[in-house]
Amino acid sequence: MREELDLTQEQLVDLGIMIGTDFHPGIRGVGPKTGLKLLHKHGTLEGVCEAKGVDVPDNIAEVRAIFHDHPSTPTEPDQLVLKPVDVAGLKQYLQAERAFSQRRMDEAFEKLENGGRLGGGQTSLFSF
What we know:
The protein is built from seven helices and no strands. It is an all-alpha fold and 128 residues long. The protein folds into two domains: 2-68, 5' to 3' exonuclease, C-terminal subdomain (DNA polymerase, domain 1, Orthogonal Bundle), CATH 1.10.150.20; 87-127, no CATH class. The longest helix has 13 residues, at 102-114. The radius of gyration is 20 Å and the shape is extended. The two termini are 25 Å apart. The mean pLDDT is 83.
């Protein structure tokens, strides 16, 4: 990533924040291409915000921490066990917590079921 886009890890996180993530709505009018140009010119999210005349998000340290300090569980590949998907539980979560429409879910789950992606037939990256 560093060589392709000429970005540091910190700038890549700033780019994600500028274009919008689950944790921050982004800066209006800034997409991936514009964000990349702005970071090359101004260096940091703070520099971009100053140049565009917008406030730096109040929770910027918290949002950055989500990217940098996320928990991980060291696990060997042979310890990973794929289980059948709890379709009913997943649908409940998507509707209750993420406000997915019934139509949207039905279409997505139909595609998954037709493609053999639900149930016990899952494969892992290690099975190729």
